[in-house]
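Practice problem: Glyoxylase, beta-lactamase superfamily II
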Amino acid sequence: MIIKEIEKNFLKFIFDPKEDNKFGYNIFVLIDGNKAMLIDSGYRMHSTEVKKNLESKGIRIESVIISHFHLDHINGLTGLPDVHIIGSADYEKTLDIYVDAEKHHIYTPDIKVEEEYSFKFGEFDIEIKSFPGHANCSLLTVINGKYVHIGDELIFSNDGVPILPLISKSHIKRHITSLEKLKDFTSYVILPSHGKIIRDEELLLKDIENRLKYLKAVDAKSEKISYEEAVRECDQEFLHSEFHEIIYKD
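Answer key — structure tokens:
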């Protein structure tokens, strides 16, 4: 685990990839006195490390914003009893895929965001926006009008190499729409759930355009196309090219 200070009372906890994966895991932490708010919880082993580190400084985790309800973003809630959960009002469809119904109560949001939800946490002004794309229940979190947490709309390795978009073919149009909308946020500092913080607007736009080229190439053909054909118009390489096969496993 590596801890980086983004600015005062704003930390990024970085975890290594699982075996055979190229992408690691980020948990962002906002601090107000002896209270902390997380953005995503990672897996339980991740949230446990964050909790232990904060408790050593006399800080308790009060709440967690969930960017979307895939297991690598919510499983850490099992190690954070009694926290306040903020998540999408559309959480159940995703949760049903990964979690047995009798365990839903562990992950059910206390605040369910339909379109937008704004509040203040210490010195941080938080705006949460519904942003279906990578997942139907995806949220964007804007912090102090400067930073935007994007969940898995863009995925990178810990050293910043792009990871191929991971989505089923039936939902590609949704992800294309979210990436087009993400262009409205290129002047912000981008906080991905996986990978390095992005501060360069030109590089960000280039990455978005390459992902759009890939997804549109796949979407344009009703039949399966090869990975090589799908990235023909792209001018950057993607890690995890095998994710291309997952697109066709609806």
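Discussion: The mean pLDDT is 95. Students who identified this feature from the tokens alone can consider the problem solved.
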